[in-house]
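Supplementary notes for students who missed Thursday's class. We covered one full example, reproduced here. Read the sequence, then the structure, then the short commentary at the end.
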Amino acid sequence: MDSALQQDYLKSLGIVQYVPREWAVAASESSEREQIGSESRAKAPGQRVEVSAQTASPSAAEAFSAAMTAAMPASKTTQDKHVAALVSLTELSARPAGAKKVPVRPVAAVEEFAQAIEVKFSLWQISPELLVCTMVEGALADRDEMQLLRNLLNAIGCGFNSLPSLELVEWPPYPKAQGDEAEVREFLSSLLHARFNRQPVKSMLVLGEQAARWLLEPAALDHIDNGRVAFSEQTVAITLPSLKQMIEVPQLKSDAWQILQPLLPSLPINPSS
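Structure (token representation):
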């Protein structure tokens, strides 16, 4: 039976079908929009659309059905799609236009580019009270540098023709050992202190700025006075220019001699000279 005709029968019988006002209004507006939109799509260019009264005014039953459909909440699947779209839009808005996502480089990949530290030092135990230290820069001391070192030591009374056996101390102490500057200094300092605990030394002669930088504490470098600074309670570090510097700039030999003079009364003379 036609819906409009059914409503007329019900009305003539005095039966009033109740429809909530908000559902009726919502259904009427929704139906009108859908009807106009569908007819507009079917309309040819320049053709006028005629809307009948029956089409424009839906029945109460149709209004009730449309209102119920409009009032039903969206399904969970639809809600999930909306949430996913919202999250995607939020991420895009937070990223500048044209920006590319840059992957974070792992820590291990960053560390492999760090420059490895390699240092080497020559040590001579001149006497029970004097240790000489110099940094090996590229190659061991050549003939001229060794002769200059002998002359300096003989000038303060050591008196020998040949130097004692050379000892080498180097970092890394074993292959693939790693450490930053602070750790390398700690290693060298611990090695020297352990050596002096076994065999106390009054004076440690440090040749060259680079050797002093690695073998002395950073705070000690600021307190060097006339080339001298305390290394420990028993040992005084005496800093001189490197052998290579003194050969290239002869005036530095005179400066070194002024620093070495206080050692004359305290160092025993080697009787085997």
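Commentary. The domain at 119-263 is CATH 3.40.470.10 (Uracil-DNA Glycosylase, subunit E). Residues 41 and 250 are 102 Å apart (CA to CA). If anything here is unclear, bring it to office hours.
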